[in-house]
Amino acid sequence: MPVIGFDMGGTSTDVSRYAGVFEHVFESTVAGITLQSPQLDINTVAAGGGSRLFFQSGLFVVGPESAGANPGPVCYKKGGPLAVTDANLLLGRLLPEHFPRIFGPTEDQPLDADASRKAFEELATTVNDLEHSRGSDKTLSPEELALGFIKVANETMCRPIRALTEAKGHDTSRHVLSVFGGAGGQHACAIARSLGMRRVFIHRYAGILSAYGLALADTVHDMQVPCAKIYEP
């Protein structure tokens, strides 16, 4: 069964497809710059655990700006902005007791779930005030707000997977979703459900799988030299 690689880190998510052979592209465009070089066909979107959360013009927006590692999300207690990690923490998908005490100004404190909740409560007040001014009587809780942002982030990450499968004539539901990266496991089931995938594989070294793979990979040097010459038969 073909595999979709789903690598979600702090600032971005990389997706790829493997069906017995490595798929390559010979030209790609990154940030408006065209690169003509053979490379693995990997699609990247700016959505990760550190992607910032915004409420703009009545819409939930995730990224592309990132909170980074420093100051990081609100829960890092270094004065950072709301991010996807805060939403997962508020929804109980992250357990502070399973993380080392390396946060806060002195880097000896746990993740601060209360700080994340307070930030979402403040944002919920802004969102609800706007909705009430428009005549709506619905009031969103901080948890509903966090889940809304998670859904936006998930849909953003589903798009490159569809580009590698449906856009090329492959049935997405007939793939296994192989999830890794520091934040991948928090979104795996929702991504699979959205794409109709029934099987999710999470490697035992999922959080460090990219580094693990690099350590096992062969070192190869490729060189290209431009040439403009007429060859006579």
Automatic annotation (TrEMBL):
Question: Which BP terms does GO give this entry?
Answer: glutathione metabolic process
An example Gene Ontology molecular-function term = 5-oxoprolinase (ATP-hydrolyzing) activity
Pfam families assigned: Hydantoinase_A
Span of domain Hydantoinase A/oxoprolinase: 2-222
User: For this UniProt entry, what's an example GO CC term?
Assistant: cytosol
Protein name in the entry: Hydantoinase A/oxoprolinase domain-containing protein
